[in-house]
Amino acid sequence: MYVAVKGGERAIDNAHLLLAKMRRGDTSIPELTVEQVRQQMPLAVARVMSEGSLYDSELAALAIKQAAGDLMEAIFLLRAYRTTLPRFGSSLPLDTTQMLLSRRISATFKDLPGGQLLGPTFDYTHRLLDFALLAEGEHPGPQVDATAQLESCPRVLDLLAAEGLLARERPSAAEVPDMTREPLDFPTSRAQRLQALARGDEGFLLALGYSTQRGYGRNHPFAGEIRIGEVEVWIEPEELGFAVPLGDIEITECEMVNQFVGGKGIEPQFTRGYGLAFGYAERKAMGMALVDRSLRAGEYAEEVEGPAQQEEFVLMHCDNVEAAGFVSHLKLPHYVDFQSELELIRKLRKQAEAPMQAAAQENRA
Amino acid sequence: MHSSDMHNAPQTQTRQRWMGVLARAGHALRPFQDALKDTEYRLIRAPEIGMTLVRGRMGGTGEAFNFGEMSVTRCVVRLADGRTGYSYVAGRDKAHAELAALADAHLQGTQQQHWLGTLIEPLAAAQRARRAATAAATATTQVEFFTLVRGED
User: Fold this and answer.
1) A112 and A59 fall within a common domain
2) Are residues A104 and A181 in the same domain?
3) Which of A215, A284, A345, B134 is most buried by its number of CB atoms within 10 A?
4) Which keywords does this Swiss-Prot/TrEMBL entry list (chain A) (predicted)?
């Protein structure tokens, strides 16, 4: 229990002024602009948009600046802002097959239609600090042949599905559940899980995905395809009666291919895990795809033996705004609670001491 | 009219195209502000900021699920002759939404060819060029594999 405590207003006001001073740092150094954060920290912006569950790169950059670089605090700020906006309906489902790719790789096939497109990536860097970045510099990028075009890049998993080695994902007319309007009920549908995972904490999903690789719910994944790029978003407003494009958003998509199911008259088939995130967010999309697959244990009658396979455990703990909130509340005054604990422990010690003293006196006698 | 018929109607497709070009135009609409506002009009719905729940598909092609929201601004204008223009644009730029709705109204009138030629086509060309430049830059990172030849005969 925590109780309302009066007082401390001056201390709180000053604490916030000190926070603003800390965020600003040495005033002889130019102040960061929100646009600089947006342009030069795109991956931090992507994470805040995904887990803040709002695609708006300017607001995400503002939140990062306001939070002094604490991304979880920034995510909280964006989530809070989200609740102030009216909702103009839902989009048509994204057609990610048609995206303008800036990166596309597959770990399952070397030669594939459209090829392996590395795009900007940390892969193959040596992870040595680049001291050249201590100074300002020009970064003109590679020599580009302006006439070069990309070949069409069909979905890698469709190639396996065409051979019948993998189930096709087919659209359905089912109503789409929305956890922001109706709380999760267990057992959940895959649509509910994917919505929760899409806003889930990258670190948590990464760790759970890793745990499946280490044997806590093993399912032998391969990164079938990772695609990063821009995709068009369409909405069909009732007042118009037809769909219109709103613009483009950047997304990262990961499709995992996992080991087989089959038997009882069904031929063995690979299984799928799917990850989707706002912006350039490869690690998040991979973690999500691993956990999406592990949470399908029930669907494939697999023994649930690892935390990553337990939907209630995963879904109730993957939201870092909720987690940070409940852990942070321990900082609220618990003076009365703690007083009663103190009294209890003193009483217990007294009760334990009394017979010991009695025994000591007997021994002396 | 049934909504799927609307999708297929050529005039709807033309309008969807220009609305898409306008939605992506952003600051590029600013130079056209004076021309677009050189008419009597009123705001039926003043520019309003909100969000749209973006949906994805499982495995990219399967059942829909709710992915996350995006910020969107919408606006409705009516010109003196009764034509109504709508806009739904990504982001929170109210001036952009108002200019896009005005353009949508102008484009439904007798001056359609004029507006297509002076506004939509140049914007569309710039947007195509940007996409082509992105694709060309990505193309430089396409991996060309070669097989190492073994030393034996």
Assistant:
1) no
2) yes
3) A284
4) Lyase
